[in-house]
Queue: 3 jobs
Job 1
Amino acid sequence: MAGDTVIRAEALTKRYGANLAVDHVDFAVAAGEIVGILGPNGSGKTTTILMLLGLTEPTSGRAMVAGFDPLRDPLEVKRRVGYLPDQVGFYENMSARDNLAYTARLAGLTRREIDERFVAALDRVGLGHVGHSRVTTYSQGMRQRLGLAEILMKRPSVAVLDEPTTALDPHSTMEFLDMIRGLKADGTAVLLSSHHLDQVQSVCDRVALFNRGKLALSGTVTELAGRVLGGGYVIDVEAHGASVPELLAAIPGVVRVQPLGGDRYRVDGQHDLRADIARRLAGAVELTGIYFAAPSLNEVYARYFAEARDAVQ
Amino acid sequence: MRSSNPEAASRHGSPWTGLGTVVAKETADHLSSARMRILEALVFLTAIAAAYAAIRSIRATIGESPFLFLRLLTMAQDPLPSFISLLGFLIPLVAIALAFDSINGEFNRRTLSRVLAQPIYRDALLLGKFLAGLLSLTIGLTALWLLVIGLGLLLLGLPPSTEEMVRMLGFLVATIAYGGVWLALALLFSVLFRAPATAALAALGTWLVSSLFWSFITDILAALIAGPAEGVLGPRLQYIYTSQFIDRLSPNTLYAETALALLQPSTRALGPVLISQLQGAVLGSPLPVMQSFVLIWPQLTGLVATTILIFAIAYVIFQRQEIRA
């Protein structure tokens, strides 16, 4: 982890009657770290976020956010946490400035602080030129940016972003992901809940995978790949010859060989096998390239839930 | 939803943190909204018309009453009803319009979780919305009250006496308390129903029952509980008391009785009066203002208590709701 722990959950549990929404979840997030929260709908992601924010009370367990217990000190937690909910809403009849000023006043900022931070926050999310327009004229993408500006105004220790890029076009998504990286650069810990696995993989330092209310897996994508795919190191090989798959499969540490079409193969290995592959294929076949490829979170996710389904059946 | 976690009972920080900010924002919203302007225009026009019609009638009989300004509010002139009758009818409408989408509107705009993610408790949001509605209502009613007094001064050419001012102030407070009941009810429905149209319909339905059908309901229930209205020797006291008790469950009745006692000083009782109680009374003579306040005190506290009770129910339900929008 990058620094001091700003979020710690211990056996966090939430029960709605007979339904166990979150089941003894343990995890920690460090300052300046971006952690992706993944899982299918109803897996307990949002309930966990709401408990960390102090918006709903855990049935049992404990959490500490920015040094405070959300159950006992929800106001102190909320002062230090910025939250961007899924499809954020604003008061349509008010300007962006008035919307942000309202929540900033609720957050305890003085008029002077609001004036100082407002321009900088809007400029940073690219809305400086429309700050005084009514929100009703904003597109969904602009609203998401405005939500991020609200977080920036608060200068929080922790930012919780729930499906922030759902309604964004590809270009806006790229820009938004850069803004999230900017939060990390400020030292803010970011919890990012999303179904867009490629985006999560591109910005997150670690990933927490939820399933049926439990934290099923947690770690870097490489670590998860190691546990789910049996490897964790993905190497793409370009080689011509009939026996390439067999030669690759015989190398110690190779977990799987997957033909990608033509003379291309993907090798899942337990460690970095590029040197072993080069030694084994050289002379035996015509080797034209070896590339180190990051393991795909999509693949990890798909494999994990396929196996989880099989286990249930 | 509230859990049974015992540690939640010892949460730190004031529940009223952010209350002032919520009240200021909501009041500004109310006072600048097109909905409120239309309703205020409706109330102002009808009330001023009623007061103006009453003034014309009073000028013809100017020497008959020492309480001319009070007659301004109570006198009806065909085809318009009296000023207080109009207020009794229209204030619930205004109060309902102020609050029927208070909480469900936040849900539907998806602003609730964003607001509650700021360092405030739900207590401050709910109370802030109620107080903002009450403040907006108070501003509108006070302006109307001053306008009617100004109109009276202008057209009657006489200033109101101190006693009239005290009675009219008491009436203003009672009207605000009456509006508070409907405001709290609309707020409750806005917590209960996620669709604002359903909340508005439920509140308007309650208002219709209370203002139009309550007397029928009172008659039926009183007859069921206390037996027939008439006995062999005339009206039965048990029926009258039962009927009065049920009738006073409606805020309209409490408000009407308060207005009657305050604005018609000759009112000496608000229930059945026995012949034996009239011994020594000078019929038709006005009651001292303090005695009128003593007379309406139960009604006034009843209106305030009803408001608090309805608000408390809304508070408990809101505290137990899941915030996901």
Note: The first strand of chain A starts at residue 5 and ends at 16.
Job 2
Amino acid sequence: MTAVETEDSAPVTTQSPPTPAITEESSRRPSALGVLEAYALVVLLVGVGVFFSLYGPTSSTFPTSGNLQVLFGGQAVLAIVALAVLVPLICGEFDLSVGAVAGLCSVVCASALSSGVAVPLAVLLAIGLGMAFGIVNALLITRVKINSFIATLGVAAIVDGIVTQKTGGLAVVSNIPAIVTSFGSGNWLGIPRPAYVLAAVAVAVYYVLAHTPYGRYIQALGSNREAARLVGLRTDLLLGLTFVAAGTLAGTAGALQVARAGGADPRVGATFLLPAFAAAFLSAAAIKPGKYNVGGTLVAVLFLAALNSGLNLTGAEPYVSQYVNGAALLIGVGLAAYLGRKRLRQATARR
Amino acid sequence: MTDGPGALGLHGVSKAYGPTQALDGVSFEVAQGTVHALLGGNGCGKSTLIKILAGVVEADAGELEVRGGRHDARDVTPSVARQLGFRFVHQQRTTFADMSVADNLAIGHGFVTGAGRRVQWREQRAHAAATLERFGIDAKPSQALGSLTPARQTMVAVARALQDQQDASDGILVLDEPTAALPAGEVHLLLDALRGYAGHGQTILYVSHRLDEVLAVADAATVLRDGAVKTTSPRAALTHDRLVELIVGRALEAAVATTAARPRDATILEVRNLRSAAVRDAGFVLREGEVLGVAGLLGSGRSTLLRALFGAVPLERGELRLAGQPLLLQGPRDAMAAGIAYVPEDRISEGAFGDLSVDENLSMATVGTYWVRGRLRHRDARGDARGLMRRYGIRAASERAPLASLSGGNQQKVMLARWMRRRPRVLLLDEPTQGVDVGARAEIYGLVRRAVDAGTGIILVSSDAEELALLCDRALILRRGVIVDEVERPHITDSGLEQLLLETEAVPS
């Protein structure tokens, strides 16, 4: 990888019409419309917040620091699961097992804590278990060559089975050390502590995706797998690693869930999957339109949470949040496809 | 062929995209029962014109005259286009290889159905058989389309488009690069068929980059440049050189530096007893600064040879030496580490990252070099990309534009730049100018010449004998995986190569 051409300025010998100068302007300055598009979801999020803060039935409950803290703290776990969905999604693959794996990891972590295992060890156990399932997914997909959708669907079902077998359907809540539960429910500087964990995880994922070659490579994989192989990328290894990353993130989410809930509910995993997918798909409608990205995922998680919380406070029936999540998933997928096409059309018209 | 009455007339058709005038008052006449070629470089407006005729893009101004009736060009919708008798066969494959010929004819046209929308298979087959007969296609309705030769598959696509026409003189067939996917030896089959249809009164608007085909099949040609008609001339007034001049505004030969640097003596790559899939015991040497051509028909193993040298297909046997050192290839990474680069034939499926930006495409084989102290230097990568775009003559809205928004020729230049920036010692090129217009072709030849001057050894696979004759210092003739002959400059001529290929193919093995 060393033989990179330095500047040699010999022009193509057969230059026909002069190449239009590529000005800084044309390449740098984003259009006003582009900015609006990139931040539309943020504006919508603010709009939802403002609406529920002014709207009569919720104006006294929604904008309170208590509610906002619940909102931020409660979404940290879901946001990490959404990031777990995001990584394989960039190379065009689905991981349907992240919810179930996060659920199992939280159950295992809580059981370990309640039987007296040291906190750091229990956390590592959860993360390691998540990573192990990620490796299983990776092997099924890259070695056995099972379609990722099917492989992770199968693994998710088995993991759900393990959870039920292990817990008998009962929550694990006894003997959780106070340090864990206080971490999950306490604040630093007025911000729930789990939000700091999320921030650290999000920065790490953003760094890997946007500032390392690995991030560029998995984008290439999502764009054209054969071309990726022919520029020398180890496609199977890279693809497998995205599932390992997803499993590891799911394990982290599981451990955080124990702190957040003060235990582990065996049914919690199932509730993560749909909103996590909705947020990951909606991410393509924000910050970097047409591309799945970390910032967009966080905005989407918050947007869905604010919407659900506000609706909840108005006294809407619980099924309404199912409508919201389902619709968000569909709109997210539709928008991602539409914005991708639009980006291409605009560039074509300008050439 | 007598010039009948006008089947189609265009009057002042214009279209602007923002500030860009894609078509500027285009007017020409197409006579009934003729093959009329539409030519022009990338971005000349011919795709826009076709889209207007198809009703996909709305014109800004102009009129269409179809068999005497005048229509406002702005009012053409897909259904109006169909009523006016326009039938299209697009460049992209729109047939289904694993379905039967009868199914292929019915899809997009309609199955013969009875009560309850049940497909009446027997009638369907009979209808298909009649259609095949009418268009002179030697195939059975029940046959899988993929089992036909590529030329016949294209003829099925043409038949599908034309089958509901009552009479050949009713409509206008628009063919967009119909031979792009055909091997060289099959092209004349399709051209013969088209001439036959024209003989029965079918009017054909034929869009192609390949000038030889146009000269072989067309009765007249219209050349577009920068959205305006350069000329509309009858065949008799056209020659190859004249067309090139009209399209690019200069001659092709002049575009390739004739002062070909002599290859240096140092051997860069030595291949012995290479065996991989179709390739049998190939052995040859490549010298520094040499262009070594590989001529062979489709299926001769020419692409496999290149892929094997890049480690993209495993070697069954054989020995490679690069600059005297033994070379062991486990995969493309090893080849790249040794300084070998490969630009595959099928750009869309094997080279391009269409939804990624031009700069991301340019840096994909060199991303590691921008990884400095734990960060990707995005700004450096983009700056370098702008430099490369200037140097390689890549025309795009910006380096941030998605690759798929570029024209084919510019995408191909991106592929070349991606690899050439690595300063490879050996560059493997598979059909580097396929589906590329004449102007971009000349630029690509210039790039090849420049790489050679820098000492790179190039192996060039091409089914275009003219291209081989123009660029190569030496050429290998490949037949069914075996190198059967070798020709050296100045004995490489296009007719000579064609002859060698045909001869070698005629000898039974």
Note: Chain A has 15 helices and two strands.
Job 3
Amino acid sequence: MNEFSSFDQPVMMKIDKIIDESNGTKSFMFRHKLDYKPGQFVMVWLPGVDEKPLAVSYLSDDFFGITVLERGKFTKLLHTMVPGDQLGIRGPFGHGYSFPDNIKNGKGSVCVIGGGCGMASVTVLIERLQENNPTILMGASTSTSLFFKNRYKDITLFTDDGSEGIKGYPTDVLEELHNKNGYDIIYTCGPEIMMSKVFDFCKKHDIQFEASLERYMKCGIGVCGQCVCDGQMVCKDGPVFNLQALSNMNDFGKYSLLKSGKRVSLSEYADWRSC
Amino acid sequence: MATANLSTDLCGIKMSNPTVLPSGFLGTSKSLLERVAESGVGAATIKSVSFEAREGHKNPTVIPFEGGMLNAVGYSNPGAEETAREFSNLNEVSIPVIASIIGTEPDDFVRVVDKLSGNEFSAIELPLSCPHTPGFGLLAGQGTPESTGKIVAAVRNASKLPIFVKLSPNIPEIGNLAKAAENAGADAITAVNTLGPGMIINIEARKPVLSYKVGGVSGQALRPVATRCVYDIYESVKIPIIGTGGVSTGRHAIEMIMAGATAIGVGTGIYERGIDVFSKICLEMEKWMSENSYNSIHEMIGIAHE
């Protein structure tokens, strides 16, 4: 076993266990200590195929896990793997979520919002915030796309089609919840349109806000410029940005770069990413 | 003691200091050029642009190792039209910006030059030396005196901007190649592109790490080779040289200038020391120059030849 806990080059790790989370979502567990802060990401390499940035969704002193929705060629191949197979891991990279003084030691009121696959990026954060007993809101398109719904005892579920939980979006109830709980900070990871609405809400109500952005990445180490969002490198300066930083990022909620570097609307980007 | 003056003049382009962001590092958007300008760079080169958009190679495309970095990004870029749009109103960026232009045939370069003619670029760079992308650079045979001469002459005809030609460290008689570029109308030589290609194999996976298997070597492993190339080129041509390859400290930069460079490319150094590597290098240069009684960059250019 490697003596280091973070890696510049991919380190091949055996899949220890695979968990079926929901329809089309699996978690891959590795018996390995990773020096990871909530919100950071690892680059996951399938030799000879591709390499993708993924959040760590399970973390303890001697193991970590990643959670992957089966979508494109890379994730389909990942889903065919069995315990004992190996994946390359490099990282962790980037800046994760921060914990301002006013929410330390269980003080302060906290809300965490996960949307779709973004839920995988906030799980380690939620566990870190246990003392704060955070409000957890999770949205997905439909019942079968919800995962981790049994991982927390207090979680409010939303589906776009109303097949489970509340019909609609987590943002629908923010005003009401904030009136009741008076949030000091809201953390979120999910579709950027949703995060952008939470950003607007926090700005209006003067609530601290942190969001994890998704951009197509290449180097993962802040040199190539592929994941740029208004002068910020999502891989190195992010992927988590706070309200002040996002206020200066005009592309947030609007534009993203395709693999060629062409800047397109978020919906065109989402169409490309989902194929 | 007075602070040393780091300003330099590169083919009439006034730079507040000799550091240059090379192509392929961070030059994907105007916003990033502004960011590197704030980080103290003297001039910046955009990511190389071809006429049509390119997706480049699959990941992994960049991998660090003990001696620097290995990369095979494969010239991903949004094409000439998108690039012209992204880099409009360049006067809003406080530093000179260089357009890196790629193509297969001389006409391809000219088509990109024409598309970008309305932009306020300060110079054109022709990297005729990429070691890892089919159809371009070394893999298109552009690293010969004949081919280099033809491409430079075609671009010379199409633009009044200063032309920089970026050469490969692989070329044995690099001085002759630089001379061919100068004779065809080049205004400066960028020396050098990445070395190689090289390969890194993950022994547990039993496979090369880069998806393209091989990639160009940059960083510390390249630096002594780059310094020697600059030294050789300085003996062969009269036009200025942008010394590029493994520079990440003020001492490295001064070494490159003493070999004959007028300006200094800093790329892999961004990974080693962060995006403010440019201002760090400048401070280190100023300190060394003051301690060693040099007042300006121009007093040091090529003095290792004396």
Note: The first strand of chain A starts at residue 7 and ends at 14.
